[in-house]
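Section 5: illustrative case.
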């Protein structure tokens, strides 16, 4: 069932669900300060959402920043992400510009993992290869900001991510109805049973909060909370999130 991927000292897919929090500051100085606060909050993984910086400064030196963040984060693993506007991010990029931005993030070799969007099929294989070259783990993702596909479609999408070379697979959907959350959790169970990589899933929005809190029961390996600001609808403060996922893990492990 599932698999285990190590990001520094963090075993994703083993034990308690891991807590990730985003770095969303739109300026260089604020980004480094935010990294300090995220580290102090005790998260398991820090995700740098570089699209926030690109939206305010398109010429930002992306290749230089992962190393600076690495110094601020200490032992906390760093996930590098450029989220497209179509999937809830801050920038609209064609495939070439997206590949260039992700490649710049990887160039320094300071990231522990990189998020690659499944929808970027034309450039996805080359970016997977580039991540392998610099020793970064690959998380392939899909974000539906308008609704929730069927459980079967979500399970197929997660399988396609694994087939594309993902070390970790992730899907986030938007819950408009409680049944959307049930479909997401069903797809999570299916993927966790059938794939040999860690599975990360969540339903965004107020109705989806239960998926962020109790995802471990259904096979999700990582949940996302916030320290300074949320990067997606439904994220809650990591301190409150840690209390709940700890309680769920304590009882689920019995």
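Designed sequence:
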């Amino acid at each position: 069932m599932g698999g285990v991927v190590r990001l520094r000292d963090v075993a994703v897919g083993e034990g308690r669900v891991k807590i990730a929090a985003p770095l969303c500051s739109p300026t260089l100085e604020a980004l480094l300060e935010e990294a300090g606060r995220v580290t102090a909050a005790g998260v398991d993984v820090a995700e740098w959402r570089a699209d926030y910086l690109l939206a305010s400064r398109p010429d930002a030196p992306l290749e230089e920043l992962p190393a600076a963040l690495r110094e601020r984060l200490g032992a906390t693993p760093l996930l590098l992400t450029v989220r497209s506007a179509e999937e809830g991010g801050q920038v609209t990029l064609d495939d070439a510009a997206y590949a260039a931005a992700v490649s710049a993030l990887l160039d320094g070799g300071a990231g522990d993992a990189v998020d690659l969007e499944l929808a970027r099929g034309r450039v996805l294989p080359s970016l997977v290869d580039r991540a392998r070259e610099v020793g970064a783990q690959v998380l392939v993702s899909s974000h539906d900001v308008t609704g929730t596909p069927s459980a079967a479609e979500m399970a197929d999408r997660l399988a396609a991510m694994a087939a594309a070379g993902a070390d970790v697979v992730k899907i986030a959907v938007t819950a408009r109805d409680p049944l959307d959350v049930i479909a997401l959790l069903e797809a999570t169970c299916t993927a966790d049973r059938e794939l040999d990589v860690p599975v990360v899933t969540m339903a965004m929005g107020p109705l989806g909060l239960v998926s962020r809190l109790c995802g471990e029961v259904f096979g999700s390996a990582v949940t996302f909370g916030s320290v300074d600001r949320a990067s997606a609808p439904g994220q809650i403060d990591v301190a409150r999130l840690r209390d709940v996922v700890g309680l769920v893990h304590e009882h689920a492990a019995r």
